[in-house]
Amino acid sequence: MSDHVHETGYDDETHSDMGHVASKRVLLTTWGTLMVLTVVTVTASKVDFGASELNLLVAMVIAVIKATLVCLFFMHLKYDKLFHSVVFVSAILLATLFVTFALMDSNQYQTDVYWQQKDYQPTSETDKAYPVLQPY
Amino acid sequence: MATAATTIDSSGAPPEPSYLTVKRGFRNWIVTLDHKRIGVMYLIGITTSFLLGGVFALLVRTELFFPGSQIVNEAQYNQLFTLHGAIMVFLVIIPGLPAALGNFSLPIVLGAPDVAFPRLNLFSFYLWCTGAALMLLSLIVNAADTGWTFYTPYSTTTGTAVVPAVAGAFVLGFSSIFTGLNFIVTIHKFKPKGMGWFQMPLNLWGIYSTALLQVLATPVLGITLLLLLVERIGRIGIFDPALGGDPVLFQHFFWFYSHPAVYIMILPAMAVMSDLITTFSHKHIFGYRFIAYSSVGLAALSFLVWGHHMFVSGQSKLASMVFSALTFTVAIPSAIKVFNWVATLYKADITLKTPMLYALSFILLFTIGGLTGIFLGALNVDVHLHDSYFVVAHFHYVMMGSALIAFLGALHYWWPKMFGRMFNERVGQVCAVLVFIGFNTTFLPQFVMGARGMARRYFDYDPEFTRFHQVSTIGAFLMGITLVVSFGNLIYSLFRGRRAPRNPWGGTTLEWQAPSPPPLYNFYAHEQPVLYPIYDYSDLYYDEKEGGWLRRADAKPEDEAYEP
Amino acid sequence: MSSAAHDEGAHAGHGHAESPFIQHHFDDGAHQFESGKLGIWLFLGQEVLFFSALFVAYIIYRHNHPEIFEYAHRYLDVRLGAINTGVLILSSLSAAWAVRAAQLNQRRALIFCLAVTLLCAFGFLGIKYVEYAAKIHHHTLFGKRFAPHEAPDGTEIEQPDGNPGKDAKGQPTAKEPLNTVGGVKAQPIEGSKGPPPGTAPVVPGDPSASKEEPASAQAGVGVLPAIEAQKAAGAKIDTESSARPPPNTGMFFTIYFLMTGLHGVHVLAGVFVFIWLLWRASKGHFGPRYYGPVDFAALYWHLVDLIWIFLFPLLYLIA
User: Fold this and answer.
1) Domain residues of chain A, as ranges?
2) For a tag on chain C, would you pick the N or C end, based on fewer CB atoms within 10 A?
3) Residues B189, B165: contact at Cβ < 8 Å?
């Protein structure tokens, strides 16, 4: 039932009896890229792109790139069975589904949310001038 | 070739001790790595919890026999139904079929010696015990009164012992996750040669789908309960409107798990049903691939419908509409299964043994439960029916009438394999019929009550509902007594039951080639199971001397059934 | 046909002896390794979902109340966060290298890499301790316990007992009642009668009524659309370097402590796992024929790193 991986000697750098052996080059390059991207993301956060959403987008794109590098190379997903990636990506997709629906729902009723303290009574003259939102 | 015709050698003693008798003693059981022993220990724990939860149910129903206070006051009543719900959901139904019976049967059905991670399996059991102990702690100290759903803001502000109950459920969640993880890896990595995905018994498709849900959905319950605990202890404010939190968010978090959870309850039940129905019809299951795909499809779709528990909780109209529409789709895979089972029964040679009686009950009760779920999924109808007894009846039809009945059916089905004894068939059949009658007596009136306005979790009620409640209570006691008798029948068989043959029911899956009860590694070393085409009954015949079913291919020249 | 493989003879198929750590219900080491690999990936999948609810909470609260996040994130020290990111990335490298070392039977390298990973984990926890200690000191805690004396830019915040605040130069700030943020006060929702656009922020009223309120239960800024409307109308709204946090700012720290706290618990668990691995490696348990525990622990550790890769920009790098 299990495929016996072709047996090789101990000294073979790229093959092991089970599982793929990461090369020094791949490990160090990945690490270097991750460090560079960290510097980039910190720098980018100080740059004003106009809207704050763009900063968030840039930060998230960089984070996703870093995450992909970690998954593919440090976690060997590039060389592993596809099913492992399916498991991991499914979990992420489910989490995304969760976020989407919850956000969509909460977005809809935000106009009903009474962000102030419930029994807030205005005290100053200027405050009293404005009608206070009452909870239903 | 497996010599299925003989279970004993010429001296009369089995060649190896069974898993029950090898290495006796409490200490050997409590640290066992054998999936069968772990399954038996789960079974003991789960049936005990079931008894406890059942006692709470009967107390609830006694209280409701007349309007007004009978045996408890309002606060205690809240605690009664909370404990009943929490115990039944977290300690009995969710672990029930997978942990107790799945643990026992899964490796044997695969012809494997054990699950993939036996130590993790034992750890899951310890977690179950810890969770049970924590829930018991809550019961002893000041039982939680929040309902098993622990809704905020009540659960964060009530004075009862919510923390142990929630902590218990949290721990039980991880027991469930690790069991599911174990089963997925076992099914992927321990299938025998010749058993591809579409030669697997349908029981395993169901267990696999359940395990996917256990692994992917339960962590969300974990984090939700953790947040609840931290909120309650540390007042962090995530669900507290006074601090800017959102109590409806709790419900989103809770139901994102708890809807797939109900499919964790029903999928193993449906899985067993497929095997039971085909075995006792002596006929190949109708629509194997449809049932297989519908199991996985149901697991996937179950993630998309959680909002239907929140239609009147303040959820936005847009979300409610989307969830309502998606809820209708989730009926489709379930319906596919029911159609296939009924088609299997058509023109089949049906044997009405105890497990089959439970299976037939299941089909009817699940249909009722499932359809009433559709009523509740319709947005406008749910506004009227939400939090009424209609909902109570619906979920008891699916959780008790379907999942628990399937558990009983599976228990009777595998009992001879697990303990090597046949229970009294007549008593079993009568109990199965009485459970069916008792169940419907209990819960059918609740549909009517609910539609007429009787609210759930209410301690007192308008006198117009009295008759309904009384019929319901009588049914509950009938069911309770019958269940005790049927468990008694099973336990009695351990002492006085006839010794079970390897294949008492005529099943074609691999566990029926193992000895009853099996040895430590499930099959004797010299007798490896043989894979026959799935659900092919043509080769099986009933042998009077054996008291069970045999294969013509295994017949020796001296046997009557021998065909050269 | 499956084999009830509990006899040692079944293992003799390979030229090299199997590791003594191969369990008997597996066919061989490769079977055990593949099973373990699938198992750990399933575990990582469930860990993603375990954290998911916190990300949901973050996204919802930030989407609906960005002012809280924009104000409060400046209490965090970006340098410490960035150092922690670097530390974790280094530990990921050493964990991945440890797996390689085990696969190539390089025992000393394995022990070294595991030790580096462990040191980085301690470093991470140490920096976290420093950060948490600072927050406790400044009273920037979760929920009701959010009661800072200073705004992120150093300006003192008026306390509920009525002490006037001072700005960074020590000059008293204008006495504003607790129910305003930079002078913007309660706004009714759009549709009801609101103030004319372009109205300048108002003179503070009598703060005595709000003295009894705890600092966190500040009634104040109304619903977000109103602020946007006022901004669009050109009113000078100072929601950023104001001397007073927006209402319910404690929510940021609730989410911060939940996310980093849960993450920290996972780092701590990883510490125990790597100590165990280090002990086993020193005893020579691991080699090319058996290195599953190293591989699986490294995968877990990479997940811990992955989560931090997202936490860092989301919590520390808000623009």
Assistant:
1) 1-79, 83-110
2) N
3) no
Q: How many Cα atoms within 13 Å fall on the side-chain side of residue C245? A: 33
- The number of distinct structural domains making up chain C is 1
Mutating which of B185, B218, B246, B259 best tests the A interface, going by the most A Cβ atoms within 10 A?
B246
Q: Is residue C28 part of a domain?
A: no
pLDDT for A115: 67
Q: How confident is the model at residue B22 (pLDDT cuts 50, 70, 90)?
A: confident
Residue A101 to residue B318, Cβ atoms within 8 A: no
Q: Do C48 and A92 touch (CB under 8 A)?
A: yes
CATH number at residue C290: 1.20.120.80
Enumerate the residues of chain B whose CB falls inside 8 A of the CB of residue C54. Answer: 223
Nearest chain A CA: its distance from B295 CA (Å): 17
Question: Does residue C123 form part of some domain?
Answer: yes
The beta-carbon neighbor of C317 closest among A7, A42, A133 is: A42
Distance from CA of C85 to the nearest CA of A (A): 8
All partners of chain C with 3 or more CB pairs under 8 angstroms: A, B
Give the containing element (helix H, strand E) for A69: helix A52-69
**SS3 labels along chain C:** CCCCCCCHHHHHHCCCCCCCCCCCCCCCHHHHHHHHHHHHHHHHHHHHHHHHHHHHHHHHHHHHCHHHHHHHHHHCCHHHHHHHHHHHHHHHHHHHHHHHHHHCCCHHHHHHHHHHHHHHHHHHHHHHHHHHHHHHHHCECCHHHECCCECCCCCECCCCCCCCCECCCCCECCCCCCCCECCECCCCCECECCCCCCCCCCCCCCHHHHHHCCCCCCCCCCCHHHHHHHHHCCCCCCCCCCCCCCCCCHHHHHHHHHHHHHHHHHHHHHHHHHHHHHHHHHCCCCECCECHHHHHHHHHHHHHHHHHHHHHHHHHCCC
| % of chain B with per-residue pLDDT over 90 | 82
Residue C30 lies inside a defined structural domain of this protein: no
Q: Are B545 and B561 in contact (CB under 8 A)?
A: no
* A6-56 pLDDT, tens digit each: 333 333 344 455 788 999 999 999 999 999 999 999 999 888 888 878 889
Q: What is the pLDDT of residue C248?
A: 82
Domain assignment of residue C86, yes or no: yes
Q: How far is CA A21 from its chain centroid?
A: 27
The tokens describing B482, both together, are 């019958």
Residue C71's Cβ-count burial label (10 Å; 0-12, 13-18, 19+) is buried
Give the closest of B237, B521, B531 to C6, CB-based: B521
pTM, rounded to two decimals:
0.86
Joined together, the tokens standing for residue B157 give 């502000």
For B213-253, what is each residue's pLDDT tens digit? 999 999 999 999 999 999 998 888 899 887 888 888 999 99
| Domain boundaries, position C90 | 53-146+249-316
How would residue C109 be classed by pLDDT, with cut points 50, 70 and 90?
Answer: very high
C175-192: average pLDDT? 38
Q: Encode pLDDT of B309-323 as tens digits.
A: 999 988 888 889 999
Residues 70-99 of A with CB under 8 A from C: 70-71, 73-75, 80-81, 83-84, 87-88, 90-92, 94-95, 98-99
Rounded CA separation A97/C16 (Å): 48
Q: Which residues contact C79 (CB under 8 A, 6 or more apart)?
A: none
Chain-chain contact of B241 with A2 (C-beta, under 8 angstroms): no
Could you give the domains of chain B? Answer: 30-554 (1.20.210.10)
